[in-house]
Amino acid sequence: MCRWLAYSGAPVLLQDLLYRPEHSLIVQSMHSTLGAEATNGDGFGVGWYGDGDVPGVFRSIEPAWNDRNLSELAAHLHSPRVFAHIRAAIGSPVQQTNCHPFRSGVWLFMHNGYIDGFHAMKRDLAMMVDPAFFSDIEGTTDTEMLFFLARTFGLEEDPQAAMARAVGAVEEAARHHSIAFPVQGTFATTDGETTWAFRYSSEGRSRSLFVSTDVSTLREQHPDNPMLRELSDDARLIVSEPLGGLRGAWREVPESNCILVRGGDLEMSPFEPELAAPVR
């Protein structure tokens, strides 16, 4: 599988976010403790929001622990909203266009998990993508296909409903191919202002997902922790696995739930697939 994190809050140096925690994403690229594989070395990607009209993206097929360009970039970039992903490929080639996060306009999207039977369903799913978006698909992954299905089903208007319809479309296609449990994973998307994260699998046994506790509460519990003093009150992290063992810092996202993070506000609600109307 893969590992990922989504950060929002006051601008943070990417180096502090990706390298500094005791169980950082860079450490997880070599020694994941909750992933299906301990090593996630089939490339990585970072997406961030800055001065441009669209987010910046840096993706590479190098292992995250061994990429000097990532280390150099991370030492100089600050951003208030960051997506980062380390990849363990399943089936699709190791190439830059298959590295997460994926970008379309102001949107970023990433995923840990897989669509079972994707090869058999690929044409069916591709035919559902709005022709206006189809030519923007660059890679060959199930994740990118799901992203553009979500765009097709209204990601810009209602991200949670769009993801419910996209996942529903995959499950409906899977039924025609006798695939019992097609969707597995945790997903995240953002427009630069709000982050949505989803934990869902057709089997009801999703990959791990955690969200950070309110920073002000953590400061009260751990007044001597220097890193907590540097974070803004509205800082939030959503992660595949905790970045450290600080007591009370993380809570697990329940199965079949969606998290919305806007500013310091966090909302959690049930997530279930919907049967989408055909695209015309």
TrEMBL record:
Residue ranges of domain Glutamine amidotransferase type-2 in the record: 2-242
Looking up Gene3D superfamilies in the UniProt record yields: Glutamine Phosphoribosylpyrophosphate, subunit 1, domain 1
Q: Name one Pfam family in it.
A: GATase_4
What is the superkingdom listed in this entry's lineage?
A: Bacteria
InterPro entries membership: EgtC-like (IPR026869), Gamma-glu_amide_hydrolase (IPR052373), GATase_2_dom (IPR017932), Ntn_hydrolases_N (IPR029055)
The protein's UniProt keywords, in alphabetical order, are: Glutamine amidotransferase, Transferase
> Could you cite one Gene Ontology molecular function of this protein?
transferase activity
PANTHER family the record matches = GLUTAMINE AMIDOTRANSFERASE DUG3-RELATED
Quote the protein name from its UniProt record: Class II glutamine amidotransferase
- Name its species: Pengzhenrongella frigida
